[in-house]
């Protein structure tokens, strides 16, 4: 869920741009450095951006037959770290604004702050904390994915509350309203995204253990590398 | 998924086929962003309403984009704006003295109604103004135009590659999901309507797409580096002549909206 174009007052657009700028500039600096040192990673980073964009286009199944969309920022935060996600998130949001009419240009700063900065950073901190406390990988992934999603929608609700304070109860009342309408409805989605993350990483550990190790991720039980037989089985399984 | 992929292709195809493709990107950015800022800064009546009308006229009239493409693109933002508008419409807490309606802690009054209307109309006008650029300018043109602002080359390069990979991966994704559907992987039968199986299939599809994309990017990178691709993959910009008539029309339309808005406010 992104804030649509024209919704935020001009001053707040500027404030959110200013708030997002240091993170995006830091992410851009890291990416430029990474590409200059290892030009071969350019295409991999572009793939990460394209995957994040497409991930937000996948419908998640639900009992009622309706569907929701994941934000995909939790996966990016675990795989590529939050600074990279800040810049890649900006690119994805620009593409979403111009190719899907989701979000906008003046609200780009606010949307970047909620989806590409707050979500990935909060999710990643919780992921690191869970790992530090020797929690299981599945729990760390679940919390990272679910809280990234939830944080994004909570920050979006707060941004809207600052822009449209309630006529009776001010910013706090408006925050409660928007959290009720948007964030609370997102709790089931966040939990679903958490479970999806566990299944997704379980699949990746089976078929892409060397790539995960290359990204510095320690998710393979016992540090074993994937064997070609399990690769083939897993790829066939993806078409089940 | 299919609706999203249809939207991506619909807006991108519209941008590539638009008669405005031959216009300078800077002129279209001036038109679109001028309307966006006008929608943001002028009063709801008549400013934002006039911006919405002007944007629709530009898109459907001059740029000859199909009304259906525009209507489909606007569905998502409209739903968000309606939800946001309804949230703002209801006040929570002590009912104001001038409330039109109240029930317990909820009430609707002139202040909240005006706020809700402002949110909806500013949002619709702003989104339509962005659509002027989105439906007439392919991303490649926009990224090529951005080179003049001295943005570091690797960043533009990654944005360019992301855009190009998007459609390749979209095809892969549709193939994988179609394969799952053909094997009845998404069939809602069994305990909990096959929820567990469908979830595992969704995760496997995402993982498979990620791994295939990763491998494909690695192979592509290897192939391109053998052809000397080390720094940038620059494309030759299409030379476009300036259209003073278009610039004048844009400035006149925006100035007229501002003049009418000030005139109405002064009454």
Note down, in words, how this protein is organized.
- The complex is a heterodimer of chains A (240) and B (267).
- With 240 residues, chain A is an all-alpha fold.
- Chain A has one domain: Orthogonal Bundle (Arp2/3 complex 21 kDa subunit ARPC3).
- Helix content of chain A is 72%, strand content 0%.
- Chain A contains nine helices and no strands.
- The radius of gyration of chain A is 19 Å and the shape is globular.
- Mean pLDDT of chain A is 81; it is low at 62-67 and 224-240.
- Chain B is flat, with a radius of gyration of 24 Å.
- The longest helix of chain B has 32 residues, at 195-226.
- Chain B starts with a helix and ends with a helix.
- With 267 residues, chain B is mostly helical.
- Chain B is built from nine helices and three strands, in the order H-H-H-H-E-E-E-H-H-H-H-H.
- Chain B is 72% helix and 3% strand.
- Chain B folds into two domains: 2-137 and 242-266, no CATH class; 157-226.
- In chain B, helix 1 packs across helix 4 (67-89) and helix 2 runs antiparallel to helix 5 (110-134).
- The mean pLDDT of chain B is 85.
- The chains are: A mainly alpha (240), B mainly alpha (267).
- The interface between A and B is large, with 81 and 102 residues.
